Amino acid sequence: MPRTITAYSNPLVKRVQALRDKRHRREEGLFLAEGLRILTEARETGRIPRFLFFAAASAAHPLVRALVTAVEDHGGEAIETTPDILSKLSGKDNSQAVVGVFATFEAQLADLDRRRASLWLVAERLRDPGNLGTILRTGDAVGAGALILVDECVDPFSTEAVRASMGALFTVPIVRTPWDPFITWLRSGPGQLVGLSLQTEEGYRDAPYTAPTFLLTGNEAQGLPEHYEAACDLLVKLPMRGKADSLNAAVATAVMAYEVLARHKG
Q1: Which of 179, 185, 184, 234 is nearest to 209 (CA)?
Q2: All domains of the chain, ordered by start, with CATH?
Q3: Radius of gyration over alpha carbons of the chain, in Å?
Q4: Percent of the chain scoring above 90 in pLDDT
Q5: Could you tell me which of 217, 209, 212, 214 has the C-alpha nearest to residue 259?
Q6: Nearest to 31 by CA among 161, 125, 133, 134
Q7: Could you report the per-residue pLDDT of 185-217, keeping only the tens digit for each?
Q8: What is the dihedral of CA 251, 255, 258, 263, to 10 degrees?
Q9: DSSP 8-state code for residue 65
């Protein structure tokens, strides 16, 4: 049976609100996700929140009822609260109907079976949580095997990244790794490493792609380091017809992902 919390001073409210900070997420091993669509995506993949906060006005919604049942069946706690407290938890004025607190999760390189997909996404020193979330959405859309985050990337469990992923955080495996273990793992089996670069004349539509393709996108401002580019099997360039020298990292990844998929099928 859900309990009711209406006081801002409640210790659980303060604890959950603190999860918007990276240090608290790391210490607790927990993160926030908000919105009925995202939490329903999570439930359908078997990810159930430890705590579920929901507004009294949405309690009768069938998807909210399904979430409450799932949380309680898995030993979690469902909490009815006010729109103001939901806004306080999410950091948004227009609060969502539900906010969930999940245990963090991620895969290891050794867990990945490169036979399960022809395309894998790799991002190096990604800094923008919106880009990370959008790349996860792309990964879900193209059926990528995983998103591999190389070196110090933005936290995929930040509220902004989770929000931007629109539920793809729960459907696309995530691995975080330094470069050296990644390249050692990659070279231990089949896999073509394709880097997006301005330092090449190879057009993205002319290049020979072979599956499984590991598509490597560099840091938004600096691109890929030279020795990372040197380790790639192939460097490709997107044509720029205007004054900008490159596309947004997430947009470039999406364009490349669909091109690689089309070439695999062709």
Answers
A1: 234
A2: 3-103 (3.30.1330.30), 109-265 (3.40.1280.10)
A3: 20
A4: 82
A5: 209
A6: 161
A7: 999 999 999 999 988 888 899 899 999 999 999
A8: -150
A9: H
